[in-house]
Specification:
12 helices, Trigger factor, domain 2, alpha+beta, four-stranded antiparallel sheet, Chitinase A, domain 3, Alpha-Beta Plaits, 11 strands
Length: 445
């Protein structure tokens, strides 16, 4: 095998590789001999098929197999001998080959850059801390009580309002014709819940028990029933009863519904949950600070191929957001401006990913199989009833497993850096903790 480096451009390298006809022929003959020992053909005993017959029957496929293996093995050998760490799979281009002659191919690769992490202990970060007040815990308990609310008949003389449950008889028609599923008796409907077609509940607000109301609505264009999509309908509604919502009492019995001993234990649990939620937000903000500082403090070339892959993924998501009307201001920006902006984001992500990877490698930070398994179980729980299919999917897709492993590794490296950095704490109101960092930066600018 002859290997010649033909081009060097930053992280890009190109090589010309020549595999001799003799080596290829030896590999072909060896593979044909292996086949001869196992192939079964009519008229020949097992293991006694002449090589010439095997070559006549299988020569083309054997040659293709040998060439593919030879190119794969020789390209790997060429990189290993030079100690090159590639960013992506090499691009192979066959330049010359005819049976009986040398094989010549070109190999283009992009290398991983040399990454030298800065002094992690010198990084300064600020952690925002929120004290959980008793008032906040109390309001959370009230929301829990409201979620366990029951209803009781309205005793005061007033019309139905949002939040009330009305018991109704109704029958609907489209173009004067009754439709299946458009009628019911003694149906309890909470006004303001959005359970019925838009506009239906609104037209019952202000009605009283005993009233008859003709409700006119239009089915959404994508209602889901082809014969009703976009159709106007009239519902004749008799309001039989109005029931008001009665929150559960805030006492020990409420706590026991959640498997807790008493109200104090419920308050303690709620306080811990709020504290945990604030802690997660605080950590995300610290992580963002850290990544910003790492990006500012490190500037090294990144493989264009990796940037392109990241950019394409970002761009596809952006196009989906624009299509669905969720792109905000980006929807009105010129395409070239958007591409330049998001290509910069892609480059930053790749650079940070390589930096975190190198920090993790140098400090022997690893993701255990147990951690991957926990992530897999959590993912399966997101698909109730389809857990088996989820496990089978990950079992047969190594890249999907790597997609679970990568964020775990990143978080472990981030936590490692935060432990080394100088972190100060500042107590702030909830509003400041929850404020969008992008909006803060825009105001500062």
């Amino acid at each position: 095998m002859q290997i010649t480096e033909t081009s060097t451009d930053g992280l890009k390298r190109e090589f010309k590789v020549v595999l001799s006809a003799q080596d290829i022929d030896q590999k072909v003959q060896g593979r044909l001999e292996e086949l001869r020992q196992t192939v079964q053909l009519p008229g020949f005993r097992p293991g006694k098929v002449p090589v010439t017959v095997v070559k006549q029957r299988y020569g083309g496929s054997v040659l293709a197999e040998v060439l593919e293996t030879a190119v794969s093995d020789s390209s790997r050998q060429a990189l290993n001998e030079r100690g090159l760490r590639v960013a992506l799979q090499p691009k192979i281009e066959i330049e010359k080959y005819e049976p009986g002659s040398d094989l010549e191919y070109k190999m283009a690769v992009e290398l991983l850059p040399d990454v030298e992490p800065g002094d992690l202990a010198s990084i300064e970060l600020e952690k925002l801390v929120v004290e959980v007040s008793e008032d906040e815990v109390g309001k959370a308990i009230e929301r829990i009580a409201a979620s366990r609310a029951t209803t009781e008949p309205l005793t005061e003389d007033r019309p139905a309002a949002n939040g009330d449950t009305v018991v109704i008889d109704f029958a609907g028609t489209v173009d004067g014709v009754a439709q299946p599923g458009m009628d019911a008796k003694e149906f309890p409907l909470e006004l303001g819940s959005g359970r019925f077609i838009p506009g239906f509940e609104d037209q019952l607000v202000g009605s009283r028990a005993g009233d008859h109301v003709s409700v006119k609505v239009t089915f959404p264009e994508e209602y889901g029933v082809e014969t009703l999509n976009g159709k106007e309908a009239i519902f004749e509604v008799d309001l039989k009863e109005i029931r008001k919502s009665v929150p559960a009492e805030v006492n020990d019995e409420l706590a026991k519904e959640f498997g807790l001993d008493d109200l104090e234990k419920l308050k303690e649990s709620v306080r811990d949950k709020i504290k945990s939620d604030y802690g997660n937000v605080s950590r995300m903000r610290v992580k963002r600070q850290l990544l910003d500082k790492l990006a500012e403090g490190h500037d090294f070339p990144v493989p264009e191929g990796m940037v392109e892959i990241e950019f394409e993924a970002i761009w596809r998501r952006l196009q989906d957001e624009i299509k669905n009307g969720n792109a905000g201001d980006d929807a009105n920006k010129p395409e070239e401006e958007l591409k330049a902006e998001y290509r910069g984001i892609a480059e930053r992500r790749v650079r940070l990913g390589l930096l975190l990877s190198e920090i993790g490698r140098r400090n022997n930070i690893q993701v255990s199989q147990d951690e991957v398994n926990r992530a897999l179980i959590a993912e399966a729980r997101r698909w109730p009833g389809q857990e088996r299919q989820v496990f089978e999917f990950f079992k047969s897709n190594p890249q999907a497993v790597e997609n679970l492993r990568a964020p775990i590794f990143e978080d472990k490296v981030v936590d490692f850096i935060i432990e080394m950095a100088k972190v100060s704490e500042r107590t702030v109101p909830v509003e400041e903790l929850m404020r969008d960092p992008d909006e803060e930066e825009a105001k500062a600018a």
